[in-house]
Every structure is written in structure tokens, then in C-alpha cells.
Amino acid sequence: MKFQNLATVVALIPYVLGFPHLANFPEYRSLAGLSPQEIRAVTRQFNSMPGAQPLPPPINDTSSKLINDADHPFMPLQPGDIRGPCPGLNTLASHGYINRTGVTTPGDIITAVQEGFNMGYQFASFLCYSAFVTDGNQLTNLMTIGANTTTDGQLATGINTHGNFEGDASLTRDDAYLGNNFNFNKTLFDVFDVAAKEVGNGVITFEAAALNRALRINDSIARNPEFAFETPRFLGGIAETGFFLAMFVNNQTVDNTMPLRIEDARSFFDFHRFPDGFYRRQGPFEFPLVKNVTYTLIDMIGRQPGNNNGVNNYVVNPEDPATFCYFYQKQVNATASLYPNPTPELGAAIKANLVTYYNTLEDPTCEQYFPYGQ
């Protein structure tokens, strides 16, 4: 038998090794849940396996500048393009700040959110690695900004993994228990308008954003008997309310006082598109400001981490401190549970990435964890 090319041989590897269900395994799909034998079969298909990579350097210019420019035109999705729960990443992909397919690297995401939104370097690195260590392919150094593709019926993980960054009480998507947790829901988006009219004079002020978040949490408590709102989702869900006020406002001032127009919010959330003439915020949205905004919102909303014990029966978890140190701890524990027996190459990559992840934390007093040894 003569093979026409190397690709044909590579495609047959899973069949030869007894794992036909892993044929055409995407290079960006997480290896979590695979046995060492399956990992070896899969990795023989990959073109490149650079493993753990260092963080990219921070951008030099953090001033306000035009982002929706001629070098980054909006382009509609093409067949196979991936989008996910984060309107900011979706927009960056649609404008080419990251690969328009939605398949990218952690380093590219870290650079793109700085360039597009002036997200602070350290906080951008923390967020990106919070997702990557649980949901990325740590051998190919690839990840997706969503999870809306399948291989032989198996979901390809990305930041759309439920309970991590995607989760209950989303601002514009249903809870997973209630149905479609990945597509934009205009009815839920309209809660922005309700909150804006009630306390924001028709625009999304800080007070309107807090009310909107409270309304979405209360809605999930009332309708979802399996509502879960603990760290990391609790802290991420509250913080994201501050994200759009800090980074979706055209030419935002550094003190984060300008309101967001409803039509501009929808441009990001629904259409994945920068508003015309969009200038990024002045100065980076970095950890100290993130923490201030997040904990102010928590106080205004009046909720603590917890879960539903049946519809309309929210139970606070007193053991969840809702800190970024605890956020890191939960993600490390999740990573260790996903990869209990990695191959030597994969184990080395995970170990290195977890060190990088710890180094993205702002607080040096956070305890460092070594599930794979030091």
C-alpha cells in the first residue's frame, strides 16, 4: 500500500493505535480526560508541540488611541470560526487583534487585550492563564476563545467551559441548566436597558451596572434549581460587570467615571464589533483598580458566594472567601483533577504553566501550590 503523503499516514495513527475516536483531534483542544496512551496517540498528529511558553512583554504605550482602525477592520464570522462567552475576546477576533478563527495562544490574548482595551498586563496575564491551565492544550500552547466545535461528537474545550469563565447569571446568556448558555440572548441583554432607565438616566452608569448584575443573579436564583455562584465564577462574574464599564466605553478616562451607551454595549455583546471611532481607555485597567471595582460591586449587590438548594433557595458558602488568591487555588486544584496522570512531556508543561500562573498574581502573600512537585 502506498501513502500519498505524510498527512495520510498521520491521520491513520489513532486507528493503528486503537483510538479511532481521536482521529483529527484539534491541536487547540484540551488533553484533559485522556489516558496517557490516548495522549500519546493524539500528540503524534500534532504539527508542533512547543510546550510551556514565557509571558509576552507588556505593551509600551498605554495611552488612549484609536482601536477601530484601517489595520483592524471588522469581518463577519466565517464557517468554522469560534466565538465564546467573552464579548471582548469575540470583538478582538472579529477585528483581527487575535486570530479571526478564535484559535490562538495565551501570549496573543495577553497582548491583544492590552492593545484593544488597555487591560493591565498583570491582570490580563492572570485572567488568561486562569483559563489556559484548565482549558487549553498545554503541549501545543493553543486555546480557543469558546467551545462551539466538536470532534466526533466530543466538545472541544475552551473558555466556554461551564463554571469557569462561562457560568450562571451571565449578563447576556442563559444558564446551562436553562438551555442555551453560549448564544446571545436579547431578552437578557434588555435587562441592561431596564437598569439604565431605572437608575442611569438611560445609560449604563456604575449604579446601573450593579443593578443589572443583581437582577441577573436574582433571575437565576428564581429559575435555576442548580444555580452555582462560587469562586471562580462568583468573583469572575462580579468582576466582568466592572470590565465593560472600564473598557467598553469609548475614550474612557482613567478614573472610570464615564457611562456606557446601550448601543455601544450591544455592539460588543451582540455583534462582536468595536463601535465606530472607538478609542481605548486612557491608562491600564490593572489589579488595584480591578479589585476596587469588584469589591465595591460586591458590597452594592449584597451577595456572597453560594449555590441554590432548589429554586429560590440560595445558600451562602461561608468557606469561600472570594479572593483572587482563592481563585488561583481553585484553578490549580481544577487543573490537578483534570490531569491526574499526565505523560512526562505534558506534566512538565503543566508544571511550568502553573508557575507562570502563580507569578501573574499581584499579591505575593498568596500561597503557591505544587500539585506536580517543585
UniProtKB/TrEMBL annotation:
It comes from Boletus reticuloceps. Residues 70-302 form the Heme haloperoxidase family profile domain. Belongs to the chloroperoxidase family. This is Heme-thiolate peroxidase. InterPro entries: Chloroperoxidase, Chloroperoxidase-like_sf. The keyword Iron-sulfur does not apply. GO terms for molecular function: metal ion binding; peroxidase activity. Its cofactor is heme b. Keywords: Heme, Iron, Metal-binding, Oxidoreductase, Peroxidase, Signal. Pfam families: Peroxidase_2 (PF01328).
